[in-house]
Amino acid sequence: MIKTSISILDCDFNNLEREINKINLSNADLIHIDIMDGFFVSNNTIEKFDMGKLSKYSKKKFDVHLMVDNPEDHIEKYIKPLTEYISIHIESKGDISKSLNKIKNNNIKAGLAINPNTKISDLYQYIKLIDMVIIMSVYPGKGGQKFIENTFDRVKMLRKSSNNIEISVDGGVSSLNSYNLISNGASTLVSGSFLMKSENINDSIKNMLKDS
Ligand code: DX5
Ligand code: ZN
């Protein structure tokens, strides 16, 4: 079963309850929360995401993506009953294994996100510690960017080395690239603009998952 995770980075934060309700009513599996600290990437979204409000409105589990320099200092804030995954970046500062263990010790699945210019083989040393890899298919920092084509090969390479790891792909994902991602081994598709801007989220999810 391929999962879908909807990024709310560019949703209408003035009408957050309505936006989250749209997702609640959809067949998406997860809500993807993009946390940026203004250092790891230039945008800062720390104040934008009110975990109290999100927890109140959401019926879906959270897939938290930390684009921050020092993940260990941020993890605590996102440990919530609805949090299923917290992912940190392999390029971030500090002790990666320690942060991953902190996530796992709270009974939350641990993910490692990797930027387009970082070698897939750099992940291998952490594979036993993690449940999921997020392969970035854009340079992190903002939504609505163009999908980078060599992501297909990167997904394939990681899938070859690990049969059971969850592989999520994040950035510019739509029905134009979903089929190829899934056939190369992706198990979760993160989508922001394609799903949130579509007329009917469920029709668009169906389109992304057709033939899979
Ligand atoms: C990029 C974020 C992504 C992105 C997804 O830094 O991690 O989650 O917002 O949005 P789309 O699907 O619009 O690229
Ligand atoms: Zn993301």
Describe this entry's structure for a reader:
Helix 1 links the parallel strand 1 and strand 2. This protein is 26% helix and 22% strand. It is of the alpha/beta class. An eight-stranded parallel barrel has the order 1-2-3-4-5-6-7-8. The longest helix is centred in the last third of the chain and has 11 residues. It has a single domain, classed as TIM Barrel. It has seven helices and eight strands, in the order βαβαββαββαβαβαα.
Query: What string gives the helices and strands in order?
Result: EHEHEEHEEHEHEHH
Distance between the termini: 9 Å
Tell me how many strands there are. Answer: 8
Oligomeric state, counting identical vs distinct chains? single chain
User: What is the CATH superfamily classification?
Assistant: Aldolase class I
Strand content: 15-25%
CATH architecture: Alpha-Beta Barrel
The name of the CATH topology is TIM Barrel
Largest sheet: 8 strands, parallel, barrel
| Rg value | 16 Å
Strand order of the largest sheet: 1-2-3-4-5-6-7-8
- Small-molecule binders: D-xylitol-5-phosphate, zinc ion
* Count of distinct structural domains: 1
In percent, how helical is the residue content? 25-40%
- Please work out how many helical segments DSSP would assign: 7
CATH C-level category: Alpha Beta
Overall mean pLDDT stands at 97
